[in-house]
Amino acid sequence: MEKNRILELALDGLQREKERIEAEMKFIQSELKGTGSAIRQALSLPSAGTRRRRRKTSAERKAHAQRMREIWAVRRVQATKPAAPAKTAPAAASTKTRSKTAAQKKALSLKMREVWKRRKAAAAKKAK
Fold it and tell me: N vs C: which end of the chain shows fewer Cβ within 10 Å?
């Protein structure tokens, strides 16, 4: 069955390719003869990228539906199971962050001003 399906798909693809080539041949022949509008005939050519959508057979749809029923049944069973208890976090005494004092903030601010002043001076020197 699988082999037949592959052969059918291959045959279908070759037939579409044949139709496309025949349409191109007709277009070229009409151009050589000077009959017909090239634009009108060019519009009637099928594009190279068009493909017919593969349809599922009824057996394939039934098999897919059965697989999905099984998957959802498993999910429903898992959803009804009680969740494992959450682990409690250890005491957060050591996670307290230290804030800076006003003097520390002032010192850091002055230090950063000096850093930016030096960078600005170096950039001005480099620009000259």
Answer: C
Whether residue 52 is predicted with pLDDT greater than 70 in this model: the reply is yes
Q: State the Cα–Cα distance between residues 62 and 60, nearest whole angstrom.
A: 5
Which DSSP string corresponds to 3-49? HHHHHHHHHHHHHHHHHHHHHHHHHHHHHHHT-S-HHHHHHHSPPTT
Distance, CA of 23 to CA of 60 (rounded, Å): 35
Cα separation, 61 vs 66, in Å, equals 9
From the number of C-beta atoms within 10 Å of its C-beta (0-12, 13-18, 19+), residue 93 rates as exposed
Q: What does the alpha-carbon distance between residue 128 and residue 35 come to, in Å, rounded to a whole number?
A: 73
